[in-house]
Amino acid sequence: MIEKGCDAYLAYVSDFSIDTPTVDSVPVVQDFPDVFPTDLPDLPCHVFGEDMSSTSIKRGRSREDIISNLPTDVIYCILGKMPIRDIIRTNVLSKKWRFYYLNIPELVFDEEFCKELKDIARKKSRVYQFDEYREYMNQFDKIVTKSLMLHLGRIERFKVCIPDFKSGRRVLDVLDVNKWILYLFSKNIKKLTLKHKDKHTEHLRLPPYFFSCLDLMYLKLQNFVLSPPPDFKGFHNIEQLTLIEVDLPNICFESILFGCPILERLELHWCSGIHHFNISGSNLKRLHIKDDDEFESICLADAPNLTQAFAVLG
User: What is the rounded CA–CA span in Å between residue 195 and residue 224?
Assistant: First the structure.
């Protein structure tokens, strides 16, 4: 091989006298303010108290990082208003910002996130000639799963909209939905939204440990199977429950309601398995029902706190 011009290595030398690089030793954008404002005109230099142009640097003017000096809770609040991709990008602003995105209390993978990811998969498929939807599905699972597994702080709100990948494969064969739920259970999740947009595949059955998320205050499910274990005692802290195209046995639904003593708002949209709806001594204040013809009876005789009821049947 050497005779044909290939490179060969006779020895591999390591210098152990040199210290191993640390995370703090990695250069970041803010370390080069006199370079990046020119090369990267979109760099958000306006977040600093002084002009970061090369002229101001040469004059020796001080630069105060206003946003980084805000209270941590305020920074998390600001990040919570941003798309997830932009949140991750903030880790290049400075060393102080490197791990903020790993501690935000809200993770939202909504329709806008799915649209951007799909556009990226479409462009890559044209360049590399591979299946667009397979790439879309793999990247979706990779980003959501890693965002959860690498998260360091508490997670109070988690929202994910699982799109229609048009792959013909069961979502659970590709996505780690059960792993997501198990990790959220360990984080004492309070607000959870799981939406599966594909109506033509089998509904996803929630694992038994989902019913151990007892800190839930808000729950929204779409296209799932909700079947609690026999020893399930209810979500005692839940205040708002929205079920869209969810499959559940009627007896299970009544046991769920009985185990939600402070539930104030309930929305049921085209759920299967519910034939009788009885409210007895509930704290429920708002009730919205949309269904075809499955409801046989709705009894609101003992609902002292109910102030709004809306039902569309048939």
Answer: 8
